[in-house]
Amino acid sequence: MSRPTLYIFAKAPVMGRAKTRLARDIGVVHAKRLYRAMTAQVLRQVQDPRWQTVLAITPPSAMGTIPEWQAQGNTQINQIAQVPGSLSPRLAAVFQGKGPAIVIGTDCPQVTAVDIADGFAALRQNAAVFGPADDGGFWLMGANGPLNPRIFDYVRWSHEATLSDIKARIDGNIAVLRTLTDVDDLKALQAYRKTN
Question: What percentage of the chain exceeds 70 in pLDDT?
Fold first, then answer.
């Protein structure tokens, strides 16, 4: 069996390009600062020798240019470019490899290596695993690849039905992890700060 792979989707922390919904509520400078802090926290909390960690970056020109993405402690982080387009082709691309894969973003600073380990454990007996977000989306998706890329067609992204759209297209058993908060706007930021 292939070594499990954790893909972390990340945007370059460019003013006005990352956390745009949050920036509308708190301003672009503060949103950029928060995004950098959340990304660093996620990277710190999820790496583990039991799986390989790959940072999937957009835009591709940012590869190798963000100092804090080069290494965490003594660990070098592999980087790949995300394919262009919406989240559908970007997710489809990383699930084309063989073996267990998990994808997370950098919007959920509560995620830990324990969550990732739970996800890979669930994939031993299930076709897919999700970590639901309290907004109707998900903070983690895992599957045993390769996946049919068509399962991401017609998914309503950033919608209260995002998770249910994808779950309806997966054949086989689906495991569900704990529900967490995606910090996408001021309301979510306030909810996260109340519980952490």
Answer: 94
